[in-house]
User: Fold these one by one.
Assistant:
Number 1:
Amino acid sequence: MSHTQTQQPQKARYELRFHSLYRPGRGYSFPCDACGRVDMDALSDGERHRYLYARAIVGHELSLPAVQQSDR
C-alpha cells in the first residue's frame, strides 16, 4: 500500500509596516493578518508599547502603515 503525502501550502505571513518619514530605511513592523489587523494579545509588552507608539506618531514621524507579505 502506498501512502501519498500531500504538503499543505505554507500560509502566507504578513506585516504591518510603518515607514519613517524622515529616515529612509527606518520604521516599525508588526505581524498581522492579510487585512492588517494586529493581534495585540500575541505581542510582548515591549512590542505592544512600540505598536501603540507607532500608531500615535503616524503623520508626524511615520507614514500610514502598509500591509506587506513577510519575508521571514
Note: Residues 14-69 form one domain.
Number 2:
Amino acid sequence: MKYLNLSNSIYQQKGSGMDLTVKDGMLINNRPNSRTGIAQACEMKKMMKRAEKVSMYTEAMMMSKSMGGSCDMY
C-alpha cells in the first residue's frame, strides 16, 4: 500500500489557513465573523429602529393607563 506524502498539504503549511485548526481529524473554523462594516451598520440601524418602536409602544400604553383607558388589546 502506498502512502501519500501530506507533509506539504495546505493543512500542514505555516501561515496558510489562518484560524483553522484540525481537531480529531475535523477542520475547525475559528475565523472571526466575515460580515462587512456596511452590513454591521445596517443591522445596528435595524436594531435601533426596533428599539424606538418598542419604546414608543410602551410609552403609549403607559399614557393610556394613566388616562384611565383600558389596554385589553392582547
Note: The radius of gyration is 27 Å.
